[in-house]
Amino acid sequence: MQVERPLVLEISRHEVTVGRPIAVRVRDRGGHPIDEALVEGGSKRTRTDERGRCELTFHSPGFWKIIATKSPTERVAYEPDATLVRVLPRSSTVRTARRLEP
To answer: Fewer CB within a 10 Å sphere, N or C end of the chain?
Structure first.
């Protein structure tokens, strides 16, 4: 008989600019890290390390759904979790410091 363990997906922020990484953590409800969980966002895929952590970087703006899954074992079936992140375009205004003349 398998025990069901819901995954908990945590992200560092829900809004990020294009090209900036998002820190991801996958754990169970007890707070234990889930290693080797598959984290997907669009065409991006990565796996968590032994601390349940990884990073995703999006290269185009929009709303992206991030999903965490893990393959079942003989004893445990994992329920996936998902969240939404908004990726903003880079600012088209570049601010540079100008020297003030006396």
So the answer is: C
